[in-house]
């Protein structure tokens, strides 16, 4: 069967992934499973062992998603020299440290060495493309393609154009990530942290406050979230949820009857915690108690299996539209 992704992905036969950490490995697994050859560039001496170990860990999840994983690493290679790594790339996905000066240095090299047709994307979790692109001759080529971790599993990719990013680059990025089975969302303007991380940060701030104040434990708070808003938000986001909560009158009715109370009573009462020594001690001790029963790898695998089950129920597994041998 022909995959609907094939017409787009045939233009992307080779990807250069810059940085072989958690995000880079995750992207590599997804690209390889979609039939894209991957070259990873990372200066660490042990990078090949780290990447191959990481790919072995995520391969079961890729298979559960319905993606082909046989001979997954046949198209994988490594190149320490950045310019050489990107010289034949159709797409570059950069995952370097979150330091502006370093990213600018990396991207100057990429711009000089990558083919003119290559799609250039950074996975940065908060640095605007506009800031990085001030170091480039052709800033219109650079776009943020920020995944929600881990990229091989979580559908969202935030596409954030800089002030000079061209509309063509944005559309190419959107089409590319969609062809990978992702759910790309193009942001209408640059904001620090983009959208998903801002939402996550806002909720986590209140989580820290409630635990630090002794209202609930970490384990209790996690259960509250997963058995209420987390479950609901998986099928209906906050605005749709409150629109439905307004009954026949929808969101206007909800705001009219509950919005003022939320604004006057709940919003001012939200916490503004800091990571002082006492707070950090409380958080760490409770994390050890709540999550100390297994390794991080075991807990992550457990989380991923549950998430795949949920995604399958929602019809959102990316492998559902791909061709199988």
UniProtKB/TrEMBL annotation:
Keywords on record: Oxidoreductase
Residue stretches making up the 3-hydroxyacyl-CoA dehydrogenase C-terminal domain: 193-259
Secretion signal, residue range per the UniProt entry: none
InterPro entries, alphabetized: 3-OHacyl-CoA_DH (IPR022694), 3-OHacyl-CoA_DH_CS (IPR006180), 3-OHacyl-CoA_DH_NAD-bd (IPR006176), 3HC_DH_C (IPR006108), 6-PGluconate_DH-like_C_sf (IPR008927), 6PGD_dom2 (IPR013328), NAD(P)-bd_dom_sf (IPR036291)
Gene3D superfamilies hit by this protein: N-(1-d-carboxylethyl)-l-norvaline Dehydrogenase, domain 2, NAD(P)-binding Rossmann-like Domain
UniProt-listed SUPFAM superfamilies: 6-phosphogluconate dehydrogenase C-terminal domain-like, NAD(P)-binding Rossmann-fold domains
Pathway: Lipid metabolism; butanoate metabolism
Site, as annotated: Important for catalytic activity: 146
Annotated GO MF terms: NAD+ binding; oxidoreductase activity, acting on the CH-OH group of donors, NAD or NADP as acceptor
Name of the protein in its database record: Hydroxylacyl-CoA dehydrogenase
Family listed: Belongs to the 3-hydroxyacyl-CoA dehydrogenase family.
GO process annotations (BP): fatty acid metabolic process
Sequence ranges assigned to domain 3-hydroxyacyl-CoA dehydrogenase NAD binding in this UniProt record: 15-189
